[in-house]
């Protein structure tokens, strides 16, 4: 009898893994993420993206973000959490580790590899002092029993171990508690008939930090950005540059981030009055985008003065 030897290694996702992760997504017939979406998630929260390798090949992967539980409606859907894959809901100062996706190569089912990922996520939750892990799981066996049982009855029978469901049973066995039955979280999920279950694992080591919103600070952290002044391809290029610096400075827990004037670089050849008129065309877009960044990254942004005509 031939015994297969596995060389299993659990580690964080790397940027170089993006293409191979997409291959795994195809293998499990999952929604195929674009490569830039994977890179975006890696950029905002590299610690929360885990993979299991077997002899150098990704066979299991799990993706996550940090959110404030109060920032989203409990009756949410998948695209509301991912913000259509721009992950702007991710908040390093949040209190919950939210599991977005788990992928497993079908050939590796039954080896308890997902168990290793869940254990790693629990350890990460404790290390970051987060209140809990939240995930929304499908109930893939439900379509086999939907004519016999309503979703509520089916879930209760799985909870009582009278029925088996590969996802729900696994989560219950890992100390996740059922918080809510949800309908329509994953549009078009036929096998679960669009039913999912919101689950939560509570971190018993969580230590609540005092609310210091109104307390006086003895130290204020200010991030000063000195970026190269050069012509921009378009306004989106400016926003992409700004986002990189905002994400970095916010990650260091800064209270303020200060940008130098940038847009004037495109109009240095014009008279001052004409340059101001041209610059004013961008005023509303710039203000709205930096307001969005300030809320998403929980940081005060000083973006300089811009004219309104």
Automatic annotation (TrEMBL):
SUPFAM superfamilies: Acyl-CoA N-acyltransferases (Nat), Carbon-nitrogen hydrolase
GO molecular function: acyltransferase activity, transferring groups other than amino-acyl groups
InterPro entries according to UniProt: Acyl_CoA_acyltransferase, C-N_Hydrolase_sf, GNAT_dom
Domain of life: Bacteria
Pfam families: Acetyltransf_1
Start and end residues of each N-acetyltransferase domain: 32-150
UniProt xrefs under Gene3D superfamilies: 3.40.630.30
Record's protein name: N-acetyltransferase domain-containing protein
């Amino acid at each position: 009898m031939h015994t297969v030897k596995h060389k299993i290694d659990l580690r964080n996702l790397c940027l170089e893994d993006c293409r191979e992760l997409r291959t795994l997504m195809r293998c499990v017939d999952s929604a195929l993420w674009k490569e830039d979406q994977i890179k975006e998630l890696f950029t905002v929260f590299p610690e929360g993206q885990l993979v299991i390798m077997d002899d150098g090949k990704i066979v299991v992967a799990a993706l996550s973000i940090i959110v404030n539980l109060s920032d989203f409606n409990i009756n949410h859907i998948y695209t509301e959490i991912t913000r259509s894959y721009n992950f702007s809901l991710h908040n390093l100062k949040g209190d919950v580790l939210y599991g977005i996706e788990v992928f497993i190569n079908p050939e590796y089912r039954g080896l308890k590899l997902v168990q290793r990922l869940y254990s790693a996520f629990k350890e990460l939750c404790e290390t970051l002092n987060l209140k809990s892990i939240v995930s929304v799981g499908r109930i893939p066996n439900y379509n086999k029993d939907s004519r016999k049982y309503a979703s509520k009855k089916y879930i209760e029978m799985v909870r009582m171990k009278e029925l088996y469901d590969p996802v729900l049973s696994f989560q219950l066995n890992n100390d996740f508690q059922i918080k809510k039955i949800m309908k329509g979280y994953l549009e078009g999920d036929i096998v679960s008939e669009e039913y999912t279950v919101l689950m939560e694992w509570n971190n018993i080591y969580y230590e609540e930090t005092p609310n210091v919103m109104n307390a006086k600070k003895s130290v204020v952290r200010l991030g000063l950005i000195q970026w190269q002044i050069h012509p921009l391809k378009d306004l989106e290029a400016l926003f992409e540059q700004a986002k990189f610096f905002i994400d970095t400075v916010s990650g260091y827990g800064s209270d303020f981030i200060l940008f130098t004037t940038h847009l004037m670089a495109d109009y240095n050849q014009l008279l001052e009055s004409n340059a101001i008129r041209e610059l004013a065309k961008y005023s509303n877009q710039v203000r709205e985008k930096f307001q969005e960044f300030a809320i998403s990254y929980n940081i005060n942004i000083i973006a300089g003065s811009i004219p309104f005509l």
